[in-house]
Amino acid sequence: MATAWPVPHLGADAGHTPARETGTAREEYEDAELARRFRAGEDQALAQAYRQWGALVYTLARRSLGDTHDAEDVTQQVFLAAWRGRAGYRPERGALGGWLVGIARHSIADAHAARARRTDIENASAAQREEAVRNWGVDESEAAVNRVLVLQKFERLTSVQRRLLGMAIYGDMTQVQIAERTGLPLGTVKSHIRRALHSLRRVMDPPA
């Protein structure tokens, strides 16, 4: 059963307190009962589990990631993932709190991996920009000018020509697909695209 219970926001100064210590027979019974209700899909059990172990999960994430916002995101992801996957929880294999900590460790590892991927992408992008600057030459300058001329000429085409040519070039659609999408006769589509390409080609061709 789906739940509309919102995961509370954890601020940087939210005054987190560690989860209560367990050990007495009554506490063990209460934890077992909470685990049963959680697995059964009771909304209030999710809220109670969050109150009981949310601070612990947040602290683990904050210490590992060193960032408040990332820790908050991980904490919310952990409890939402646990709620959605509650059918996979097996009380006989361990307490609910330990199961949540296990999910937290996986989520923290995923967060670190995502950081590494972002860093790699940013580094690769920076290297490509530096390479482009180093290798910039006459050919690239002429190509840039040609692109500007094409864009300027593109704006001078009729609205129908711009639309159909855009569908062919940027939408990677065949003329038959364009005709089906627009409802225009295939011959009309071919004629518009042919005239548009002819106009653009005149810009690119060197003067005689």
Polypeptide structure, described:
- The chain has helices spanning 25-40, 43-65, 68-84, 96-134, 138-156, 159-169, 175-182, 186-204.
- It contains 8 helices and no strands.
- The N and C termini lie far apart (74 Å).
- It is mainly α.
- Helix 2 (43-65) crosses helix 4 (96-134).
- Helix content is 73%, strand content 0%.
Features:
mainly alpha, disordered N terminus, elongated, 208 residues
Q: What does this entry show, briefly?
A:
The protein has helices at about 25-40, 45-65, 70-85, 95-135, 140-155, 160-170, 175-180, 185-205. With about 210 residues, the chain is an all-alpha fold.
Any low-confidence stretches, pLDDT <50, length ≥5?
1-22
Helix content: over 70%
Order of helices and strands: HHHHHHHH
Count of β-strands: 0
- Overall geometry comes to elongated
Q: What is the chains' assembly state?
A: single chain
Distance between the termini: 74 Å
Strand content: under 5%
